[in-house]
Design goal:
This protein is mainly α. Helix content is 51%, strand content 4%. It binds adenosine monophosphate (AMP), manganese (II) ion (MN) and zinc ion (ZN). Zinc ion binds next to strand 4.
């Protein structure tokens, strides 16, 4: 049985693999014919390779089904040693092959360990996971071939690669501060080795309060309590004591109770309480100009030796500036990655990952009351320094507090830099992945800017604080005091309690019924536990908006849980069955009478939510968070009804409206928003990619009305003939045809004008037709139309949203989306020979720079879910947040929820 099932699985994987390869091949074949032979050695071209591969897969599948069945038959055969041996060796071969494939794709594979019968289920999961990974890759490659670059993060292997900067558009700020728009630079990297692996001391994610790391206390007025200096007390764990467990616990408790007060006190509380600000820093300084960046030495400190030298240098100064860079997405508590320090003469960048367990030596300078430490916005920095290194700051000056006291227009460092140094630092790497090593120079330079000018700013604000107060030191003193309060802050670990979930839930917009709230509570606990265990952020483990979605929908099937998440977080995928059990547990909760009534009022049966079981909306909750008014699950058709107002005079606009309306009126859950004209702009590769995608997707397409199946008739046949269909179609587009199409492309340029005219005509006719049929279909929903007419003015925007669906997660309207929205949508199949090969000269290269979102040709469960909803609740409007990027890496969008809310407020 084992052999049996795994052989099938291996078929699947190899099938996927072939498609993947052919995808690559075809992508290249458009641009580079020479590469053909390199990619498929021994084959004429990719088609030949694919054909061979598919043939092999098919015969293997057949062979595997004719193997003796499990149960009696198999057991009987197994009693023959020859058969047994054969199975054994074949099984080994298959397993070897599978693990090779898995390794090739970078998946975990421990398949050959066949002795452990108990691990069978686990290993099965392994294969399933690998299949997912591979399929995901196929999807990405197909998207790429389709002209969509979904994999937008630069890949950073262990060796250095020049950083590619993604200037993200999602987080263009500006609304908050007038017209000023800030662009954050987002530098991300995949395949970063987890720095935690290198940590000498393991991260303590346990659900226990934070205990200071300090064990030596330089500059102490009051000595460090014995709890911290006596390593034995600290390190001793109850389980290490050579006594019975219960007694060990008791002893441990007694011992710790003695120290409780010390354990949770601020180690420098006494020193800070008695800190006297020296007169020298309260009098008016002569601002000392910063050295130009180019003339300033900048040292990267990543060895203990250099760190010691730096500490000695710092101890001789009267002030220095400090800043930190931090990472929080792939760690439960977060980790400090960099410490920047600037003196008047030099800049230093400390690799805080590399020197994590050595950095405590800086306490000598950091807690020296004679040395001023200038920070900007030190609130989190103070906590991070304690948490990661046991570092404290005595004699802090926070320029952010100074900026507040001065009542400056804005209190960001950017603003101070502009105001005092005329330095423009708008483009920020704030959200960069600071774990990247070696640190790209661009990031070093950026990090350096955060402290380089800070001492000069410190001078300037002191002058202004004194001037502001007519030379009296009161205001300046208050900044020192505020700064001191900040340095007195204690790091506290997030503690999970049975009530923690309520705090988060109360921040959500939706109110939950008993079942939903139960699900939320259980998911919250699951997420917390797993995040601690895996040392991942809760946002990485299961973003809150997805947790909300799952709680709200209470999917019946594990699939439904997956459908609530887009992209599916790896840990969710891994533990979907556990999650499913939690949801089931929640569903078993009795609803309150009032809740049942409320549900009925909404016209829903309380528990049943069939739309999520398989094809639930993927990530609509994302929109609902940003844009709550669009999230009521039910009003797409209304807005689309707008499109049929009688008094719409302008032709081309009308046409467009009609077409999207056609789609809405006719197409149900299997709505296909791809327009006919889209095809005209597709390259051969793109066409192929689409066809393959279609083959993989909607298993229900065969049930669509035939007018709609301009894409895949193949779904009408059984799965195996699907495979033939792919190869057949690929053949169709042989080289001859490619040439033909190339000519057609030239032709097309000439004829473009002519066609456009004709097209408008045609479209007008279609529009009338559409209008008619729509009106027929809407005879009894006049109110919808009326309502629609009222909002006709806003139709433009909404139309765009509907037409661009998948790209919706990015708030900025995209050129290309607009374009496709303007195309009329017809139900006719696109004539094959009218395809216009994709002209790369005219292509929107931003696609590859990651500035354009995904085009809308791929199977999107979202759309189907909408269909469901439309059918049932034809009022209201739902804005569809698209799949967007499916990558799970440090995405900007996620930072908004997944981890950003974890940020200490600044
Ligand atoms: P900064 O003090 O501006 O250099 O920021 C220090 C660290 O705080 C950065 O490395 C980020 O990890 C984090 N951070 C700063 N601003 C934001 C933000 N707007 N959202 C999320 N994280 C931030
Ligand atoms: Mn900072
Ligand atoms: Zn910084």
């Amino acid at each position: 049985m084992h052999v049996h099932s795994s052989s099938k699985l291996s078929m699947d994987t190899s099938k996927n693999k072939y498609s993947t390869n052919s995808g690559i091949q075809e992508t290249n074949s458009d641009t580079n014919d020479e590469e053909k032979n390199d990619l498929c050695p021994g084959f004429k071209d990719a088609d030949a390779f694919v054909k061979y591969g598919l043939g092999a897969v098919l015969s293997a599948t057949k062979a595997s089904t004719s193997l003796p069945q499990t149960g009696d038959e198999y057991d009987f055969y197994r009693s023959f040693p020859g058969f047994q041996e054969f199975c054994e060796s074949q099984g080994d071969k298959l397993l070897h092959c599978m693990s090779q494939i898995m390794q090739h794709h970078g998946c975990r594979s421990r398949m050959r360990d066949r002795n452990k019968l108990t691990g069978l289920e686990e290993r099965f999961d392994l294969v399933v996971d690998s299949n997912d990974v591979i399929l995901e890759r196929v999807g990405i490659l197909l998207d790429e071939a389709d002209g969509v670059n979904r994999n937008q993060q630069p890949v950073m292997p262990a060796e250095f690669q020049p950083p590619k900067i993604v200037v993200s558009s999602w987080n263009r700020m500006g609304s908050s501060s007038g017209s000023r728009s800030e662009t954050f630079r987002l530098l991300q990297a995949k395949n970063i080795a987890r720095p935690q692996m290198k940590f000498k001391e393991k991260v303590d994610n346990s659900n226990t309060p934070f205990i200071p790391k300090i064990f030596i206390k330089p500059n102490a007025v009051k000595p460090l309590p014995s709890y911290f200096t006596n390593k034995q007390i600290r390190k001793e764990r109850p389980e290490d004591l050579d006594v019975p467990a219960a007694l060990a616990d008791f002893i441990h408790q007694q011992r710790t109770q003695e120290h409780v007060e010390d354990m949770f006190a601020h180690p420098y509380q006494y020193e800070l309480d008695h800190l006297k600000i020296p007169e020298s820093v309260l009098s008016k300084p002569e601002p000392q100009m910063y050295k130009p960046l180019t003339e300033t030495k900048c040292s990267f400190i990543d060895t203990l030796e250099d760190l010691v030298a730096l500490n000695e240098k710092l101890c001789k100064l009267s002030e220095f500036a400090v800043d930190l860079e931090h990472h929080s997405y792939r760690s439960f508590l977060g980790l400090t990655c960099l410490i920047q320090i600037s003196s008047r003469e030099e800049d230093f960048i400390i690799d805080a990952i590399e020197l994590r367990s050595e950095l405590y030596i800086l306490n000598e300078a950091f807690t020296d009351p004679a040395i001023v430490k200038v920070f900007h916005g030190a609130d989190s920095d103070i906590e991070w320094l304690q948490r990661d290194f046991g570092l404290y700051v005595v004699n802090l000056f926070d320029t952010h507090q100074a900026s507040r006291a001065l009542n400056l227009a804005r209190h960001s460092l950017d603003h101070l830099l502009k105001h005092f140094c005329s330095v423009n630092s708008e483009k920020r790497y704030q959200l960069a992945d600071w774990r990247i090593r070696p640190l790209p120079d661009e990031m070093v330079q950026y990090a350096r800017m955060d402290t380089h000018y800070l001492l000069y700013i410190y001078d300037c604000v002191r002058v202004q604080l004194l001037d502001f107060n007519h030379g009296q030191p009161g205001l300046l003193q208050s900044v020192w005091n505020k700064s001191k309060d900040i340095s007195l802050k204690k790091y506290t670990k997030p503690i999970f309690t049975e009530e923690s979930y309520l705090e988060l839930q109360s921040k959500q917009k939706k109110s939950f019924n008993t079942q939903q709230l139960t699900a939320f509570r259980l998911l919250f606990a699951w997420r917390d536990k797993l995040a601690r265990q895996e040392d991942e952020s809760t946002g990485f483990t299961l973003p809150t908006h997805m947790m909300n979605k799952i709680s709200e929908e209470l999917p019946k099937e594990p699939q439904g849980i997956i459908a609530c998440c887009n992209p599916v977080p790896p840990l969710v995928r891994q533990q979907v069955n556990e999650l499913h059990l939690l949801v089931q547990q929640a569903r078993e909760m009795p609803l309150l009478k009032a809740e049942i009534a409320a549900e009925k009022k909404k016209g829903l049966t309380p528990i049943k939510k069939p739309e999520v079981t398989m094809f639930g909306p993927h990530d609509t909750s994302r929109v609902s968070e940003i844009n709550p008014q669009h999230c009521s699950s039910d009003d797409v058709p209304v807005k689309q009804g707008v499109l049929f107002t009688e008094d719409e005079p302008k032709m081309d606009v009308d046409v467009q409206k009609t077409s999207s309306l056609m789609a809405a009126a006719k197409i149900t859950q299997f709505e296909e928003l791809e327009t006919q004209n889209d095809h005209k702009f597709l390259s051969v590769t793109q066409m192929k990619a689409r066809r393959i995608i279609e083959c993989f997707e909607n298993p229900f397409r065969m049930y669509l009305p035939s007018s709609d199946v301009h894409i895949s008739k193949n779904a009408k046949f059984d799965p195996s003939s699907k495979i033939f269909e792919i190869s057949k179609r690929w053949k169709l587009l042989s080289i001859e045809q490619q040439q033909k199409e190339l000519e057609a492309k030239k032709e097309a340029n000439r004829k473009a004008k002519e066609e456009a005219k004709e097209h408008t005509k045609k479209v007008a006719e279609e529009r009338n037709q559409a209008k008619q049929s729509y009106q027929e279909s809407l005879q009894d929903v006049a109110t919808v139309r009326q309502q629609a007419a009222e909002s006709a003015k806003g139709a433009g925007k909404k139309r765009e949203r509907v037409a661009s669906e998948v790209g919706e997660s990015t708030p900025k309207p995209r050129k290309k989306q607009m374009k496709s929205a303007e195309k009329p949508q017809t139900t006719e199949p696109p004539p094959q020979d009218s395809f216009k090969p994709f002209d790369y000269n005219q292509s929107d290269l931003k696609v590859f720079a990651g500035t354009k979102s995904k085009d809308n040709t791929q199977f999107d469960p979202n759309r189907q879910a909408h269909g469901f909803k439309k059918k049932k609740t034809p009022r209201g409007q739902k804005s569809n947040s698209g799949a967007g990027s499916r990558s799970m890496s440090y995405m900007a969008g996620k930072s908004e929820r997944g981890f950003r809310h974890n940020w200490p407020k600044r």
